[in-house]
């Protein structure tokens, strides 16, 4: 392992390995357009030029993602998650990471900073004569936190955020390599697609918004591509979920 290896060389070696394993020219084309940004902990973060963003779907299927991450692990000597972002810089990645994870670089006991309840039990701590309680130990942030910081109602305030969330979750969802894990992931995503529809699409009885319909179709096609499913079946699962919660 050589952590000082230039990102361009890491990616070139990754491409050569994946090209031997995945005989899909569109995957090769997409990989050739990828621009590495940074290795952040256990993540290899990269992007695509804005005019080639449509190629990203070729890198999000289970086979392509697995081949890329396996190659990165062989080259770097440790597991790396391949993260493809819409931004173009390290600063873009830091902003996206903070928004998606909802965490700070270092976990503290300040609930306002953490954004979650983190009760500290001091009942078993020693109290000294001056009634001072020793401070709790510092905890380092997890090396690979889960990308599960979705809104409580399941909906996002933009389709781009939904798509990014789905892409990240697919890499870390339990048992995603197995059919039953993929089925659970589909049901999991149906909830978030439905919640985003409630936020962004016109209410029942209002005129259709063709732009929102197009963005919905794009999200469904993105999820279908990652699961190698026909978009019709993904749409059907979303509709079934909405019927189950009383949505039209």
Protein model, in words:
This protein is mainly alpha-helical and about 250 residues long. It folds into two domains: about 1-115 and about 135-145, 2-Layer Sandwich (GMP Synthetase, Chain A, domain 3); about 150-248, no CATH class. It has helices at about 5-20, 25-35, 60-75, 90-100, 110-115, 160-170, 180-200, 210-225, 230-245; strands at about 35-40, 45, 80-85. It has a three-stranded mixed β-sheet, sandwiched between helices. Strand 2 (about 45), helix 3 and strand 3 (about 80-85) form a beta-alpha-beta unit. It is globular and about 60 Å long. The termini are far apart. The model is unreliable at about 105-135 and about 135-150 (pLDDT under 50).
Keywords:
248 residues; mainly alpha; GMP Synthetase, Chain A, domain 3; 2 domains; three-stranded mixed β-sheet; 9 helices; 50% helix; 6% strand
Any chance you could write out the topology, listing elements then pairs?
Elements: H1 7-21, H2 25-33, E1 35-40, E2 43-47, H3 62-76, E3 81-85, H4 90-101, H5 111-114, H6 159-172, H7 179-200, H8 210-227, H9 231-244
Parallel strand pairs: 2-3
Antiparallel strand pairs: 1-2
Helix pairs in contact: 1-3, 6-7, 6-8, 7-8, 7-9, 8-9
